[in-house]
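tokens incoming
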């Protein structure tokens, strides 16, 4: 199955970002703040912040997507922290954190490896959404000895709408998306564009608005930098280096919305064919933020996967 270049305009999660500046969360998001569990402790490692919840079982590290904060994983924390040591990361430039100089993804990968080794985390499970899934793939490829397993939620080795393009064409596409950002636009405009972004990529518009209010605390310059580093990349040739169990969670109503389950599975099986230990789970009635749209299904999948890791390591 092929995705043509028109899919970039139709399906790319970054395409609805508009230029902007940092915003502030509004009162609508108070419910989200109040429902987010209070961490047991907070760690700072390089450019990363990590909330720690719980202290048992296989450690689990959650890595957010673009403009995401720990609140994006609230349902997963509530489900998994009673039985696992859960570390929820915030990346540089997101959720009010300062933006570092490039290469920003390289630094994130190195600092997550430092977080694992420096805190004695034994073979943690990495769970990453979108950009966070891409970072998780990098870690599993480059630091396989530190990792016990990998779950990606709508995170892929190459951006699906650009899969048929050359590296040069992917870079050109990334530059086109980056040009949508301008410091001259006010924070409210940035937040409005984020509301459009999230509303197009999750089922509940109220949740989308709440999350956008928090996401607007992120720095648009950081978003641009992550785009410029991730979109031109293609990790497919390196997937054979992933030596750990790997679950790819795919939302049916996301990049291939309208395709049959068989077509969607075939496309992603091809995309991930170089990974020796991969399994693919399709999530119905979910868009790009599958863990928001179907928290019970995604939570059960992660829980079952990490339980399998625990059994295999016992």
């Amino acid at each position: 199955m092929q995705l043509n270049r028109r899919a970039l305009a139709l399906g790319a999660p970054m395409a609805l970002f508009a230029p902007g500046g940092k915003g502030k969360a509004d009162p609508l998001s108070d419910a989200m703040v109040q429902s987010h569990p209070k961490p047991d402790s907070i760690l700072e490692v390089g450019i990363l912040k990590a909330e720690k919840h719980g202290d048992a079982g296989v450690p689990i590290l959650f890595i957010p997507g673009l403009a995401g904060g720990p609140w994006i994983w609230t349902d997963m924390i509530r489900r998994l922290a009673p039985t696992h040591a859960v570390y929820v990361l915030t990346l540089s430039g997101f959720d009010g954190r300062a933006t570092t100089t490039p290469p920003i993804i390289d630094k994130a990968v190195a600092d997550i490896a430092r977080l694992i080794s420096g805190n004695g985390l034994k073979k943690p499970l990495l769970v990453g959404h979108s950009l966070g899934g891409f970072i998780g793939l990098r870690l599993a490829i480059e630091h396989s000895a530190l990792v016990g397993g990998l779950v990606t939620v709508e995170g892929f080795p190459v951006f699906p709408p650009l899969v048929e393009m050359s590296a040069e064409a992917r870079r050109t596409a990334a530059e086109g998306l980056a040009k949508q950002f301008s410091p001259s636009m006010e924070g409210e405009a940035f937040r409005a564009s984020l509301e459009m972004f999230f509303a197009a990529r999750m089922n509940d518009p109220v949740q989308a608005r709440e999350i956008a209010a928090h996401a607007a605390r992120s720095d648009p310059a950081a978003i641009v930098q992550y785009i410029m580093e991730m979109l031109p990349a293609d990790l497919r040739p390196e997937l054979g280096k992933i030596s750990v169990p790997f679950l790819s969670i795919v939302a049916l109503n996301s990049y291939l919305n309208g395709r049959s389950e068989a077509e969607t599975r075939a496309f992603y099986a091809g995309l991930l064919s170089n990974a020796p230990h991969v399994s693919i789970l399709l999530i119905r009635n979910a868009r790009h933020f599958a863990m928001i749209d179907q928290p019970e299904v995604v939570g059960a999948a992660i829980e079952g996967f990490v339980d399998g890791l625990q059994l295999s390591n016992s």
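note: The chain has twelve helices and eight strands.
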